[in-house]
Amino acid sequence: MSKCAIIILMYRDSESTINLVKAVSQFNILDEIIVVDNCSPDDSYEKLKEYEADHIHVIQTTGNNGIAKGNNFGATYAKKICTDIDYFLFSNPDVIVTKESITDMIEFLDCHKNVAAVCPMELTKEKDYARDFAWKRPTYGQLMLTVMPITRRLYYRNKKEFLWFYDVEEAVQHDAFEAEVLISCFIMTKRSVFDEVGGFNEKTYLYHEEDLYAHKLYKNGKKLFVLMKHPIVHLGCSSMNKEYDDYEKINKLIVDSGGVYMSECLEIPPLGIWIYKMLYKISLIEKSIFHKFQKQRK
């Protein structure tokens, strides 16, 4: 079987990370387990260092520069300690996985030369199918709709059918469902392709890193699949919630990353990106006024 390294990117979430390390260390299908502490300001790094072993490595970045850069940092380390590694498995700390989920991914990539990345079907902590398990590469028009005040509300209320999300009920009818973009909470990719396209785009800090990576793979004629037989459970964005509890800060990260995606993947000129960002600001003002009005009524 091909060699695989799991790269777990952590920020201020030692508890979830320790649980995941304990679980995957029991699997004999992972050659290396690499925990990347994204420069947590607490004692998460020190706690994880206690779990280091022959094939369990705990490393730390010099600064928290986002998901893309943190994952690339882990991949670079993986190649140093295991020069013949075949696959990278990038994981959030807050997932519950099985050996079968990982085995399925390795075997699928082994058997399909033109497939660059796979992920298992994602379940919520309530064990429901996650609506954003995968999606189509968003267009400029679709992204614009998500920042306009009225259509933005429709988007967040009905991800199932609005814009670029796939229909879950249709997708689960397949053992392997081909998708344009895979969610990055638990994604396996071929090391050769990852190196070929230059890894994740480090111009993003948070959000749209999946879209940018998928676009690179698309340009190289590669395919992506979601495997349905052995789903994983994603408990929620625990690391992100601890760092980004400020609504305006989160939205700034979204819009900045959206601008990178528009520029590099959709080739939108600066004026088009400026309009997108202005509409986003207007939507935030509209939301702020709405919240104040609600408070006054109470």
Automatic annotation (TrEMBL):
One of its GO terms (molecular function) is glycosyltransferase activity. Signal peptide: none annotated. Keywords: Glycosyltransferase, Transferase. InterPro entries: Glyco_trans_2-like (IPR001173), Nucleotide-diphossugar_trans (IPR029044). Residues 6-196 form the Glycosyltransferase 2-like domain. The keyword Transferase applies. Pfam families: Glycos_transf_2. Belongs to the glycosyltransferase 2 family. This is Glycosyltransferase family 2 protein. It comes from Schaedlerella arabinosiphila.
